[in-house]
Amino acid sequence: MSAYFAALSEALKTAGIFQPGLLLDLDRLDGNIALVKARLDPGLSVRLVDKSLACLPLLSHIGKKLGTDRFMTFHPPISAVVLKAFPDADLLYGKPMPVGAARAALVKGDADWSRVCWLIDTLERLAEYGALADEIGTELRIAFEIDVGLHRGGFASPETLSKALSALPAHKRLRCEGVMAYEAHAPHIPGLFGGPAKALAQASDRAAAFVACLGADQRRILNIGGSKTALLHHGGIANEVSMGSAFVLPSDFDTAGLDGFQPAAFIAAPILKVVAPMLPGPPAVTRLLQALGRFPRKGCYLYGGKWMAEPVFPEGMRTNDLLGLSSNQQFMGLPADSVARPGDYAFLRPTQSEAVLQQFGPIVVFSGGRIIDRWPVLPMM
C-alpha cells in the first residue's frame, strides 16, 4: 500500500498539484470496467448513473468501453448537459421529478428532452404528467417506479400498477416505456431473514410480477439493480441494470457483489503540519488522555477536510473525536512511529462517489505512474 500511495504522491508533485483534489486512477478504473464486462449477464445492458459519475469524460470513457449510451439521471441541469454531450443518449429518471421541475426543463427547451423517460410513482403523478403533456402539446415518455422490497415508494403491488395502466389511455400524450425497480436493501438483509441471496431472488420475482402487467409494447425499459447488485442478476425479467459507483468503488460499496473491484478514486490532501498534539487547557489533561489511549502522541493537520471519506494513508492515520473535524485544517492522529512530514500527501477514500467527485473542481487523472489529464466535473446545482 505504501508503494502505491508513494507513486501517487510523486505524480502529484511532478504535476505541481499542491492543494486538495480528487484523484482518479484510470488503470484501476479500466480494471473495474473489465470485471463488469466479464461478469454481466449477457442478457443485460448497463445504464450509467450520472449522479455517481458526474464528469462527462468519465461517463464517456466508461460508456465507450461498455458500448452503452444509456444513462440514469436525477437532476435536470445535469440531464441537459448529458443530453447535449451524448447525441444518442437515452435517459431514464431514477427518481420522480416534481411536475414543476419537468415543466421548467421542457419549456426551457435547452436540450432534446424527447430522449428522456420520466419516472411515475403514483396515480396522482401520472395525472400531473398527463396534464403537463397536454399543456405543452408534446408526447412524454414515462416509466413506472415499482417497489420490489426497498419500500422507498413507487407502486406497491402489481394490482396498483394495473390500475395506473388502466388510467393511461386517458392521457393520450403519455407513452409507457417500462418499469424501474431498485433493490438496494438486498445486500443488507441478515441471515435471520433469509440473507441477501433470498432477498435478491424475491425482488427479481416481484419485478417479474409487475412486468407481467405490461403490454408487449410497454417493455422497452425493464430496469433493476444498482452497483451492489447489478452483477448478481442472472436470468431474470430485466433487460438492463444501473451502475455508477461500482466503477470507482467508494468504501460504502465494499460488498460481495463487487468482489475483486479496486478503489479507483481518492482524495489527496497535502499535510500542512506534523505536530506533537496538545489539547487546549492544562497540559496534564492531554497527558492523561494520551496515557489512556484517548488522544494521540503524534498528529498532523491537513489542507482542508471534513469530507465524506475515510483515511487510508499515511497508514494508521485517524480522525480524533476530541478535536473533531474541520473543513479548513483537519487534525488527524498518527502512529507514534509515523514518518509523515509537512509537504507529504494524505489520501482518503470517499465513502461515496455521488457529490464527492464534484467537490474539488477538475478530477486529476492518474495512469501509468503519472498525471495525464484533468477532467471537468458536472455542476452540483
UniProtKB/TrEMBL annotation:
Biological-process GO terms, alphabetical: D-serine catabolic process
SUPFAM superfamilies: PLP-binding barrel
GO MF: D-serine ammonia-lyase activity
Domain Alanine racemase N-terminal: 25-247
Protein name as annotated: Alanine racemase
Organism: Rhizobium loti
Taxonomic lineage: Bacteria, Pseudomonadati, Pseudomonadota, Alphaproteobacteria, Hyphomicrobiales
